[in-house]
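Hi everyone,

Forwarding the result from last night's run.
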Amino acid sequence: MGSENKNAIDLNGLIKDLQIFIELSFQEKDTPLKNWLNKAMIINHFQSRCYITNDCEEKNCPAYKNERGRCWLIAGTMCGGRPQGKFIKKYGFCTKCEFFQNVIGNDPVHKLQELIIILVHSLEIKRDELKDALSSIKTLRGLLPICATCKKIRDDRGYWKRIESYIKDHSEAEFTHGICPDCFQKQIDAFENEQ
């Protein structure tokens, strides 16, 4: 009965961790989520280290002498003598690794705890990538004062600019020039009238 009681306690702890994680994921700032992840990795700490277990001397490996111990969460580890790349690329390789399997063990609650840590780590990476992508996007917003006749736009310093220049300065758009069928016909008509 002691083993079943311990599993129930562990499972309740896991459920509480999931509830906390969900609540933290609603917050705009990511600091509490990063703190939760760090705390979860400390609470679910294990003594094994891949470089010790595998008798690895690859000192350039970021997992070498790393105190967190979760080499599968670290980008660029030197498993098999070559860099394994980013977390997302190496995850499948790492989960098949004998060291990973031995550390995670067969306890379903422990496996779930570790999978939640891996999921949160993965979501943090994606969140950072999305923040970087979002910061590089330029968007036009608000009202643009445009001349009804020549279609120039007044910028925030009061200067009138051609629409192409304004949009190029305030977005990632590039312009190529062509002529629409209506304007083409007007040009032909104007040319013929001059003749």
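The chain has a mean pLDDT of 82.

Cheers,
N.
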